[in-house]
Design a protein that fits this description.
The chain is α+β, with helices and mostly antiparallel strands and 209 residues long. The protein has a single domain (11-80, 116-208), classed as Roll (PH-domain like), CATH 2.30.29. The protein is 24% helix and 45% strand. It is built from 2 helices and 11 strands; from the N terminus they run H-E-E-E-E-E-E-E-E-E-E-E-H. It has helices spanning 11-46, 194-208, and strands spanning 67-89, 93-97, 100-103, 107-128, 131-136, 140-144, 148-154, 157-162, 169-172, 178-183, 186-191. The strands form 3 sheets. A 7-stranded antiparallel sheet has the order 6-5-4-1-9-8-7, with helices on one face. The chain has a two-stranded antiparallel sheet with strand order 2-3. Strands 10-11 form a two-stranded antiparallel sheet. A hairpin with a 6-residue loop joins strand 8 and strand 9 (169-172). Helix 1 crosses helix 2 (194-208). The longest helix is centred in the N-terminal third of the chain and has 36 residues, at 11-46. The radius of gyration is 29 Å and the shape is flat.
Amino acid sequence: MDQESEGGVSDEEQKKINREAEELKKQEIAKQKEKDANDFLMGLENGSIPIKYTGQSPVILKKDEVISIIMENINLQEPRAVRQTHAAYGGPTIRVAKGVSFRMGGASARSESHEEIKVIDNGKLVLTNKRLLFIGTKRTVNIDLRKIMAIVPYKDGIESQRENKQKPEYFTGTDRHALNYTINGRSGTVPIYGNVLKAAIQGLISNLQ
């Protein structure tokens, strides 16, 4: 007698049951990882989960200042005015031969200006419990966290708007970096997308108040 006639399951049915159980386990692990990542993000945002960089500091720190994150190869971008000139021709068009014509009258030009986001420099982005600093080859940016009015997250970085500066600053390339975390006894890694960096900055600002 085979297994089926004895009230059991066949080998193929058992394999199917095992595959379904394995798939269910993978789904449960994925859901748990997603929940842990969301819990970590919420903890960053409300300042209850501290993050601390333990390596050597590339900047001179102030009293009671500690580094949270350092990221290399970050682009500093800012809006820049770009001017375009358009030519316009006046007067009638005279046809002088088949496929040949010319315009009577002169030409005039008008100039228009618009803004484009341009890469200004490349360097390190350093987030401390007090400041957001960019250290590039041509530019250095020193932002007091308390002066930040708004942060707009993007997949690859953030847009920062601060007091006493008319135009925003963009820091991109953060998604090439990641944060390791442990929450609820489990470890994980999350890329530093704009929303993650924004949450970290908001949490540090809340702890300053």
